[in-house]
Structure formats: structure tokens, C-alpha cells
């Protein structure tokens, strides 16, 4: 029997779009996102008869909770549009650790109404938003393609400090860098002139 692979919550990422914009723009990654939660509930009613109980299921209800840190972004503004102007949104929860045989990523897709957008503006922390969405109908499961740009945003390669010349290789060597996993880090040492050079460059004293 194959070992069951656990899936990390941080590898479930959220995308968002106003339904009215589906014909003219692609969905966008929710920026600076925190936790994502989707809950399914189907209540049932039990009726007692002379020959036993009969259980009747009600319709499915689903709710989405999404948190993200406030920033100047299109998605942030459109969450305002969604609740203030009662617009239908599209929402995707994408699992970056599950792909099918075509290399497409497993996802849950839903259309929803934003029913609450709690905002927190504390003096000692970053502003935070916590929208709640009530799903319209039944969420759908499927597989989707992430663009190279999206994948680079979510799993970008290491880069050095130098200029990136020509076409980025995204293999850890751009900017005169070397990716950690491609280096023999067991041979790392402390350079003999590290303290002197650092202090000199910062105008300090040794």
C-alpha cells in the first residue's frame, strides 16, 4: 500500500476574480495572503415513522474565509467592490503539491458573494483583511494550469546580487548566484578577512 502524502496548508494558494471580468482578464493571486478556509455543510433531518427513522438531507452550503494583509493592489480593491456593490466573485483554492498526469494543478473552484469583510488596522501591526464568502451552488473540483509567471511568483529560484543578463535561467545562477541545494554546503567556512572587510565597508572600527 502506497504511503499517504501529507499536504502542507501553506501550499494551498488562493486566486480571485470578479465574475464580470472573466471575459477580459485572468484571475489573480490573492496578494500577501494568510489563511484560507473553506467549509462544507449538509444538514439532515430525521423523521420518525412506525417502521423506523427516515433521514432526509438538505442542500449543501459552503463558506470561504480568506485573510490577507492589506496593500495597494487590484485584488484588494475588488474585494471592496464585491461587498459594497454586491458583485459575484470567482475563487480558486489551488494545491501546489498535487498535479495530474498532464501537469495540471488540483483546485477547488467556486462562485460566491462576499458577505463580510472584516478589517483590522492596529497601530502596531500591518493592516489585515478577513473577507467571508458564501458560495453560490456547489463548488467544483478540477485541474488547472498555472502560468510560468505564477509559478515563478510562488516558487522562485535563488538569485545573486549582480545584474540579471539576457534571459533569466531561473536555476539559481542568475545574478552570479549559486542555489543552496546545488552547492556542497558542508565545505562552507568563515573567510579570514570577513570581520575586517565588513567593518571597513560600513565605516566601523575593528
Automatic annotation (TrEMBL):
Basic and acidic residues: bias regions: 179-188
Transmembrane stretches, start-end: none
Low complexity bias locations: 189-206
InterPro entries for this protein: Phage_69_Orf23_MTP, Phgtail_TP901_1
Region described as Disordered: spans on this chain: 164-206
Superkingdom per UniProt: Bacteria
Name by which UniProt lists this protein: Phage major tail protein, TP901-1 family
Source species of the chain: Lactobacillus johnsonii
Species classification: Bacteria, Bacillati, Bacillota, Bacilli, Lactobacillales
Amino acid at each position: 500500500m502506497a504511503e499517504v502524502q501529507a499536504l502542507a496548508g501553506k501550499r494551498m494558494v488562493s486566486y480571485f476574480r470578479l465574475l464580470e471580468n472573466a471575459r477580459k482578464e485572468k484571475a489573480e493571486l490573492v496578494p500577501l495572503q494568510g489563511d484560507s478556509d473553506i467549509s462544507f455543510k449538509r444538514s439532515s433531518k430525521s423523521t420518525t415513522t412506525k417502521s423506523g427513522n427516515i433521514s432526509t438531507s438538505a442542500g449543501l452550503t459552503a463558506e470561504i474565509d480568506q485573510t490577507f494583509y492589506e496593500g495597494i493592489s487590484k485584488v484588494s480593491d475588488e474585494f471592496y467592490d464585491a461587498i459594497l456593490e454586491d458583485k459575484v466573485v470567482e475563487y480558486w483554492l489551488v494545491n501546489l503539491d498535487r498535479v495530474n498526469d498532464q501537469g495540471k494543478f488540483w483546485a477547488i473552484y467556486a462562485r460566491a458573494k462576499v458577505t463580510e469583510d472584516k478589517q483590522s488596522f492596529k497601530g502596531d501591526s500591518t493592516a489585515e483583511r478577513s473577507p467571508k464568502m458564501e458560495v453560490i451552488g456547489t463548488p467544483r473540483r478540477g485541474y488547472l494550469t498555472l502560468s510560468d509567471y505564477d509559478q515563478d511568483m510562488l516558487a522562485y529560484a535563488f538569485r545573486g546580487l549582480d545584474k540579471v543578463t539576457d534571459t533569466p535561467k531561473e536555476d539559481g545562477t542568475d545574478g552570479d548566484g549559486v542555489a543552496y541545494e546545488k552547492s556542497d554546503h558542508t565545505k562552507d567556512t568563515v573567510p579570514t578577512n570577513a570581520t575586517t572587510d565588513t567593518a571597513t565597508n560600513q565605516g566601523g572600527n575593528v
